[in-house]
Amino acid sequence: MSDSPLRLRVGTSHKRSLVEHTLRHRHATRAAGSGCRHRMWRTCGALGPRPDPPARSVLTNREKDIVKARSKIFGTLVTSASAGALNIRSMRKWAPAVALGLTVLATQALGASPAAAASIPAGSVQVVTKPSPVNTLATKEPFRANCPAGQRVLGGGALTVGGVHAVITEMQPIHTANGDSFEVTAAADQFGVAVAWNFQVFAFCASVPAALGVEIVSKTNAPTSGGTDQAAAPCPAGKQLIGAGGKIANGNGQVDLGIFTNSSGSFATTSAAFAKEDADGFAGNYTVTGYSVCARPTVFGDFQQVKTQFSTTAASQKRPLSCPSGLRLTGLAGGIAAPGTHFQEIAPRTTNAPNIADFGAQSSIPPSGPWTMETTIFCAK
Q1: Residue 349 phi/psi, 5° resolution?
Q2: Is the pLDDT of residue 140 over 70?
Q3: Across the chain, where does the E strand assignment appear?
Q4: How far apart are CA 34 and CA 54, in angstroms?
Q5: How far apart are CA 145 and CA 129, in angstroms?
Q6: Which DSSP string do the residues of 62-84 spell out, in sequence order?
Q7: How many helices (H) and strands (E) does the chain have?
Q8: Is residue 59 a contact partner of residue 103, using CB atoms and an 8 Å limit?
Q9: Element (H, E) at 1
Q10: pTM greater than 0.70 (yes/no)
């Protein structure tokens, strides 16, 4: 008599039960020989009982380690400045941003799928540079370098020509219906600049696919008279930093600008404009705004961050930083926490297919010890 489909399924199930029963018996026998208290083979290995798997938290242990590492880096920057000049409470704002950034990166790492083309077409990134007028004004008017029609601004940089008392106070990516640009402002501190001086603007521009969703996210803080302040601008979920900027209003050249990111690794999702009063402080109220240029990568790894720190006891330092092979610059960031120090140069070395940036900083007072300059570049395929 032939078996019906139902009888076949029952028979197969019965055979499977016999196999599982045999396996349980074998593992139970081995467990008994090794002193294992658990009789079920699923919970007992050859070397003894297997502990129950830990309940999964929001962040994995690896991600928690990364969060601690990021916190340590920001803590190092805080400790390198005098306690009176830094507002420690402002640094705590980073904790949620770091956790958010790591969660986003974990999602990207697990969910990214390979694609055939790079996010930004090869060779399309170019630098538009423009010098501001040369004069003896203490505060320079905002000056822009405009991207070619149809191109988006990805980031930018600046270079002051006027000595240690010329302070960069704005590096802002701008997107309007009439076109994109990068704007820079600089001002002399309370000691002034004795000669005619100016600054140079650098705008990173490129034709980018609409699918990248390039956008500029900004955050403006309320006016403050604190020794430091920072305005963090996180990218939307699924997007990464490809450029950054910041602006200090009403600082009168006595509050300098730095730009930090929430990661020391290859990927970052948040930047913050960092405002710091000079060595003898500033009596007025100033306002800080942070800008993040965010985009959605086509291929995981298309957008990368390169970050490093340099320390010196000298009055000035200058360092280069280059993109990995095959990648090109799209933006710049960096900062210094020690009072009396500020950037004078944060600029690409070349304008065509740029992949190296130069960072130069100086202290307006004799350094009392080592001071650290953090440099960051954003690179893309």
Answers
A1: -80, -35
A2: yes
A3: 44-45, 48-49, 126-131, 143-146, 152-161, 166-176, 179-188, 198-206, 215-220, 228-234, 240-249, 255-261, 270-277, 287-295, 303-312, 316-322, 328-336, 341-348, 356-363, 371-380
A4: 24
A5: 6
A6: HHHHHHHHHHHHHHHHHHTS-GG
A7: 4, 20
A8: yes
A9: none
A10: yes
